[in-house]
Design a protein that fits this description.
Number of domains: 1
Structural class: mainly alpha
Number of helices: 10
Radius of gyration: 16 Å
Shape: globular
Largest sheet: none
Number of strands: 0
Order of helices and strands: HHHHHHHHHH
């Protein structure tokens, strides 16, 4: 269980992550922003499909079948997005962790209903994190390990623990100087915490995908990288 988070360590990890992966993060954030209009009108566009598959490829989600690309894009398009969902933290009577759990579980289940072969909790959390980085924490083996989730726990219970743990950590970090979040968008505490946890859990070893020309995914979709907001 992570117990020694502090501003100095957090800022150093975020800077180190950004030194290596800033171009990839910037490209993903740009692609995410250009999916908003499509999602708000319920359109599973090529941009939404590209977001799903880019997150899968760049973030090392293993075993995902190719059909999942279109299935998850369609499920995303049916989630009833509003502009505020992309820009502001969740406001809910039963707490932000519960909201994140509901969103991830819905995307997983809706993808299954559309023909998905398995419960893609990791991919669902990561795609939703890039669309709504203030509301949805990332779920993967790195985060599970850092937060002390028992290995025997099934994904639904494990994600609930991860969501609660990361929102609790974000509260602990609320007094830190905002500079620890870094300058690479999206500048959210949950995004910075994911960088910190991932880097501390072994990401610093450099064994992950490093895309040399990440803006190519934008060019293929006709997106100008300088147009991102």
């Amino acid at each position: 269980m992570l117990t020694n988070a502090n501003a100095k360590d957090g800022a150093a990890a975020v800077r180190a992550f950004n030194d290596v992966y800033s171009q990839m993060d910037s490209a993903l954030w740009c692609l995410s922003c250009h999916c908003r209009a499509d999602l708000m009108v319920g359109c599973p566009s090529p941009r939404v499909e590209a977001l799903v598959w880019t997150v899968k490829g760049w973030w090392g989600v293993q075993g995902v079948r190719s059909e999942t690309r279109a299935q998850m894009a369609q499920a995303l398009a049916g989630m009833g997005w509003k502009q505020d969902d992309f820009e502001s933290p969740a406001v809910s009577g039963h707490g932000p962790a519960a909201v994140a759990d509901e969103l991830v579980t819905k995307l997983v289940n809706d993808t299954l209903t559309l023909g998905g072969a398995r419960r893609e909790f990791s991919l669902a959390s990561k795609v939703l994190h890039w669309l709504s980085p203030w509301r949805v924490p990332v779920y993967d083996s790195f985060v599970r390990s850092q937060l002390g989730v028992p290995p025997s726990w099934d994904h639904p219970a494990a994600y609930q623990m991860v969501a609660r743990g990361l929102f609790d950590l974000s509260k602990q970090c609320s007094g830190w100087n905002e500079e620890w979040i870094g300058s690479i968008g999206p500048r959210s505490p949950l995004r910075a915490l994911d960088k910190y946890l991932w880097w501390s859990a072994g990401g610093s070893l450099g064994n992950s995908v490093l895309v040399k020309r990440p803006n190519e995914v934008l060019h293929r979709l006709g997106i100008d990288p300088s147009s991102c907001y």
